[in-house]
Amino acid sequence: MTTKQSATAAEESARPVRVNSWNGWDPLRHVVVGRAEGTVVQAPEPAVSRDYPDDGFPLGTYGPMPPDMVAEAEEQLDNFAALLERRGIRVDRPTPVDFTQQVATPEWTHDSMFGCMPPRDLLLTVGNEVLEATMSYRSRWFEHLCYRPVLQRLFDGDPSMRWEAAPKPRLTDASYNAGFWDVFNKLTTEEQLARVRDYDLVLTEAEPLFDAADVARFGKDLFVQLSFVTNRSGYQWLRRHFPDHRVHAVTSTNTHPLHIDSTWVPLRPGLVLHCGERLADAELMEFFKLNDWEIVEAVQPASWQHSPKLSFCSPWLAANMLNLDENTLCVEENELPLADQLSGYGFEIVPVPFRAVGPFGGGLHCATVDIEREGTMQDYFPRRYGRF
């Protein structure tokens, strides 16, 4: 580390802790970066099942991720954290637990946990509040424990911080549509899309369920995607929890909706990136255009032909980027077509080696969660349209 970098790191560590983030593009000052250590292929459960017969984990099996994959992913995560720190951004990390252990409530027992690589799935920062999401996988029921040391430090350091947790779900069989995957996986693409449009998916409405990564933050407006992990009741809970915001439900046009941050990606005020494979519904696109936002269709990912082992992520993980500010984007180093496309819009591109992290739960956005960005809540959508 150079003398200048050491001075930057020292200045950052001395700066008071402050929780403040309203969107994904204001200048980043403090972030959590996940860890790959200890991640497991989850035991089968009603919400999800993993099937990797070519990689030693056929349907119904589970256990620790291969050590060589963990080591490579952990190295890339550590290097990414160091890159951010060199830019004067404070970085916190979660504390892994033994994810191989069996977990239980009085109503069910599950044979494994998952991991703590993707903090974006669990934690949602809105203004001075950090909210722990419900999660809908039994394997992730105790995942919040990995982040409690970080949250406690934030709470101790910032007297204005609001530390909230959504109602812990029961996740009994009543929360899931029995036999959903057996039926859904046999449907045609058009039939699957119809189920998505009708939101007839794996979750019932027995209780509020949502992942934080299904929420896109645009200042006063929050867009909540209904998906395999977020139900209507979860959207309604968020709507009531944030009464000072306009909270909108968004239905995907993807056959397997899971998290909004590779589908509808805010880049800066007036510019949003759109997954080229799954167009947003027409009313949402019209709402953005009415408010003078340009919608950019992302180029096909370079990762299209590079599916890593044991990965449940789409090639469109390419769009899972991290803004350092309105003009600077961290992009996976192999995604050269996307980098070139975004450079054409005036962005400085910071290439980050991150391909090895994908099998552990996501890309650069998934692997982080904002704690502090400069800025205040702004209204970027003064004109109303349709249901929005």
Structural description of this entry:
It is a single chain. The protein has a single domain (16-373), classed as 5-stranded Propeller (L-arginine/glycine Amidinotransferase, Chain A), CATH 3.75.10.10. Strands 4-1-19 form a three-stranded mixed β-sheet. It has a three-stranded mixed β-sheet with strand order 7-8-9. A three-stranded mixed β-sheet has the order 10-11-12, with helices on one face. The longest helix has 20 residues, at 67-86. It is of the alpha/beta class and 388 residues long. It is globular, with a radius of gyration of 20 Å. The chain starts with a helix and ends in a 15-residue tail after the last strand. It is built from nine helices and 19 strands.
Number of helices: 9
The name of the CATH architecture is: 5-stranded Propeller
* Uncertain residue ranges: none
Please give the alpha-carbon distance between the first and last residues. 49 Å
Mean pLDDT: 93
Protein name: Serine/threonine protein kinase
Organism: Streptomyces natalensis ATCC 27448
Active site: 211, 259, 366
Family: Belongs to the amidinotransferase family.
SSE arrangement:
Blueprint (H helix, E strand, L loop, with lengths): L2 H12 L13 E6 L6 E2 L21 E2 L2 H20 L3 E3 L10 E3 L2 E3 L8 H4 E4 L2 E4 L15 H10 L4 E4 L14 H5 L4 H9 L17 E4 L2 E6 L5 H10 L4 E6 L12 E5 L2 E4 L7 H9 L3 E4 L24 E4 L2 E5 L3 H8 L4 E5 L15 E6 L15
Parallel strand pairs: 1-4, 8-9, 11-12, 14-15, 17-18
Antiparallel strand pairs: 1-19, 2-3, 5-6, 7-8, 10-11, 13-14, 16-17
